[in-house]
Design brief:
Layout lengths: L2 E6 L14 E2 L2 E2 H11 L5 E5 L3 H9 L19 H16 L5 E4 L9 H14 L3 E7 L9 E4 L3 E4 L18 E11 H6 L8 E5 L11 H15 L9
Parallel strand pairs: 1-4, 1-5, 6-10
Antiparallel strand pairs: 2-3, 5-9, 6-9, 7-8
Length: about 240
């Protein structure tokens, strides 16, 4: 089965400048996703989609081809993931002369996702007959039953109206999950014909919180580095001068 892994890595970022290249425990952030993708047993091909020459060079140095550069209009802050992935699929299929059957989007902002996570998500798609698989993580203490909203005159009310103030212990609350951002596995028809990364029949791949960190802030980098150092035996890199 022909399965394509797409790693979207643009050069710009507002929250953390040059985020995909920022050092994390001695490596560029995006290196962790590239290493996980290369360790997959099921991905037939991997491609990094970028408009940035430096990212392209580092990707090639890490062993992943960058046979084309992404159009600049697909590398803005407003650009959505779907057209970026579709562009990569079209370019790779044009070069290969044959279509893929499954498309896997691997965002570099999820550095703790493993090769085993990737293969498990692909296997779940194939075994279940679903049209897509998305990685999710338990919301933990941020349960919607505990959330509030502020309405007129600074009045605090339940975000999910249950008619009562819900003070149940966390262990008694029904499980609720949020997308981790680490893994989107879809049949080609979903991505290219239905114009979505998440089809009508989507299955959940539950990942543990220590593998579900999504890098949006400096604080996320510190937390990810902690897990890398303590659980993977890496040593902290000295900060660049």
């Amino acid at each position: 089965m022909r399965i394509l892994g797409v790693i979207p890595a643009r050069g710009g970022s507002k929250g953390i400048p040059r985020k995909n290249l920022v050092p994390l425990a001695g490596k560029p952030l995006m290196a962790y996703t590239i290493e996980a993708a290369k360790g997959s047993r099921l991905l037939a091909d991997i491609v990094v989609s970028t408009e940035d020459e430096e990212i392209a060079k580092i990707s090639r140095d890490l062993g992943v081809p960058v046979p084309f550069l992404r159009p600049t209009e697909l590398a803005t802050d407003a650009a959505r993931s779907l057209p970026v992935v579709q562009h990569a699929v079209r370019e790779m299929e044009r070069r290969a002369g044959a279509p893929y059957e499954i498309i896997v989007m691997l965002q570099p902002t999820s550095p703790l996702r493993t090769a085993a996570d990737i293969d498990a998500g692909i296997q779940l798609l194939m075994d279940s007959g679903a049209d897509s698989v998305v990685s999710v993580v338990d919301v933990g203490g941020y349960h919607p039953y505990r959330m509030k909203k502020i309405v007129d005159e600074n009045r605090l009310v339940n975000f999910v109206d249950q008619g009562i103030e819900d003070m149940r212990p966390r262990q008694e609350l029904p499980p609720v999950y949020i997308r981790s951002g680490a893994l989107y596995v879809s049949k080609r028809t979903v991505v290219m014909d239905q114009n979505t990364l998440v089809g009508a029949d989507c299955r959940a791949q539950i990942v543990s919180p220590d593998r579900a960190i999504n890098i949006d802030s400096i604080e996320d980098l510190y937390l990810a580095e902690y897990f890398i150092i303590t659980r993977r035996g890496h040593t902290r890199a000295e900060p660049a001068s």
